[in-house]
Amino acid sequence: MDAEDIFSVEFSSEKLLEIYHTHIAQTSAIGIDRLGKKQFEHQLGQQITVLAQKADSSTYRFSQYREKLISKGAKKLPRVISIPTFRDRVALRALCNVLHTTFDSDLSLKIPQVVIHDVKNAIRTGEFAYFAKLDIQEFYPSVHHDLLLTRLQTKVDDDRLLKLVTAAIESPTVPFPNKEAAPNKIGVPQGLAVSNILAEIYLAPFDQNYTAKHDIRYFRYVDDILVLSKEETSSLVEEMRKRLHDELHLSAHPLEPGGTKTVCGPITDTFNFLGYEFRNQRCLAKVESVKRLEDSLADIFTTYKYKVSHIQSQSLDNISRQSKLKVARNILMWRLNLRVTGCLFEGARKGWVFYFSQIDEDHLEQLWRLDRTVENLMQRFALPKDCQAKSFVRTFYETKRRNPTATSYIPNFDTTSTAQQRVILSSYFGLAHLDDWTDAEIQSEFSKRIRRATKELELDIQDIS
Asked: pTM of the entire structure?
């Protein structure tokens, strides 16, 4: 099928309704219209019909996106995330599906672990003596709309699709509704279902040019580029920076002495890529990533300490106090073990060990260190012996199974029965009186709680570049 046929399928009322139930129904972020999930679902049929009709007639307009700021740490400007309304979320997911199917053969949409696996294999060949790493500055905000649309037109001649993409990227991101806000004339808003694939399409010709070269190996993930070469790479860095600027209007950080964003050197030097550290041709997690995880583990125990102090300060009989303390320990151990093992949820692997599953198997000292950190925290906070913490080392080996769903060591929340969900909500989230809840209410609450818990896991691997 061509883009026009794919568009007609994806933007049919039936397909849009399927998209809502598959991808959107479990989300909860509210857009600029302040319309919550329950309110939207009361109007679901009407909203889907309007979306299908307006997309087909090229009259669909996106609402302004609600601005959400994500901290990138001290002395750094926050990342601006765009939150669409529920209806716009459906439209953007359908648009993503159309683009993905249309441009599938031109793009390499690999997850970071696969990219790192390929980097390791290339280094192990012994063919390459040098590396170069480039970091594109302000990538998403720098994408030029005219050039992006030109890229799209190489495979798309459907005005409905082109107008919908234009409407999606021109809609402004605002902290509150503002009718005077000017359209966004440069850049792709971050956080939309369509953002990543538009960025990939934008960079595809650049990727294809360097991937085709036989004397280097080229890797890219979003705004991070790594090249392995047989020859010294400083001139290659300058060539790539010039092409990014001249052909794509993008700026890569300059190559400077002592710089960390754009660097090059012998392959035996230490360099970072996608949160991994390559040191003496060994593949490890960045030291900062290990430290961040250790801090998050300590935070879990600190939260537990304050809960215990609060319980001890209450006027309770001994049975009630022991019961509350047991619940507090249950919650601690559940949060701790989830942080150690990660989980499978909504078809995706979540967690620190899953992300860093490509560290070298014969150099697991970082994982042993993390296990010692957990052991020390357990002792410091005087946890009883029946509180059993899971192991980062064992989790690492469990992730190597061909079928990760076959292990019970790493929780799979996609296959958790409703009865098990009740137990988890009661024992580990402290919810009471669940006998009165319907199965549907249990499933909804469980998904909400697990989604919130997995967001904590994502904080451990933020800012991987």
From this structure: 0.88
